[in-house]
Amino acid sequence: MMYPILCKVRYESLHEIFSQRDVWKQILFSIFINWIIAPFLMLGLAWAFLPDKPELRIGLILVGLARCIAMVLIWNGLAGGDAEYCAILVAINSILQMALYAPMSVFFISVISGEEGSLEVSYSTVATSVAVFLGIPLGAAIITRFSLRKMAGSEWYERVFLRIISPWSLIGLLYTILILFASQGHQVVHQIVSVVRVAAPLIVYFVIIFFATLLVSRHAGFGYPLSTTQSFTAASNNFELAIAVAITTFGPSSDQALAATVGPLIEVPVLLGLVYLLRWVSDRWNWKN
């Protein structure tokens, strides 16, 4: 699912992007939104909606701290965002995630929230998630791009190869949605009240962080592609990591794991809807031009 999107990234031109002063403003803005604003927003919503459910609250906090390193490439591609900037932000979030996710989880859950009991988040769990969901497809895409462009030429690569593999991103996304709902259907049906209570703050979170980032980006004059990339990077979460940590730390049948599992069930349809809403709004406002 990530592979076709990553094959479109112009890795050979990234050094030129990094040489621009504006790119560092984009990076700092993204880090501020992703690692300060978004986690505290999720923390506040978790307490506001689930004051009597500490287990579900912990699961939501784990989701809020897990910044997206994979699915955002899909949303960004579907909405027409900047692929190169998105790849840069994903790479930075991956590095920061391996360094910050474990200590920030302890800080937000044990220190700020004051939850009883010890919380131990394994660095190996975080690193494995990053390697599997980003490292493998990224490595394959880089090898594919440089090898095929050298053997068959850049024109064939851009006009033929990318056109062949591009539809598989959307096919992979639809398959992911199908698998998620099929695998979690039993849990959703039998704990519907908890699912609804977790879904409410998640929906509010996605809408607030997305549109707040979009409005600030547009007001700052970032333009449609960069504003789109920043907004979807801020709104997306690494639910695979949150689920893995919740299951490893609290058990597969825990409420923490349930809350983390509800995350993708809400995130995928909400962000897919935001993709088409953003495209409609941009056409109506003639923003892309």
TrEMBL record:
The family this protein is said to belong to: Belongs to the arsenical resistance-3 (ACR3) (TC 2.A.59) family.
Location within or outside the cell: Cell membrane
Top-level division of the source organism's lineage: Eukaryota
Protein name, as recorded: Arsenical-resistance protein
GO biological process terms on file: response to arsenic-containing substance
Classification via InterPro entries: Arsenical-R_Acr3, BilAc:Na_symport/Acr3, Na+/solute_symporter_sf
Record GO terms (molecular function): antimonite transmembrane transporter activity; antiporter activity; arsenite transmembrane transporter activity
Membrane topology type: Multi-pass membrane protein
Gene3D superfamilies: 1.20.1530.20
Keyword terms of this UniProt record: Arsenical resistance, Cell membrane, Membrane, Transmembrane, Transmembrane helix, Transport
Main subcellular location of this protein, as a coarse class: membrane
Pfam short name (any one): SBF
Organism in which the protein naturally occurs: Fusarium oxysporum f. sp. pisi HDV247
TM stretches of this protein: 27-50, 56-78, 85-109, 121-148, 160-182, 202-220, 232-251, 257-278
GO cellular component: plasma membrane
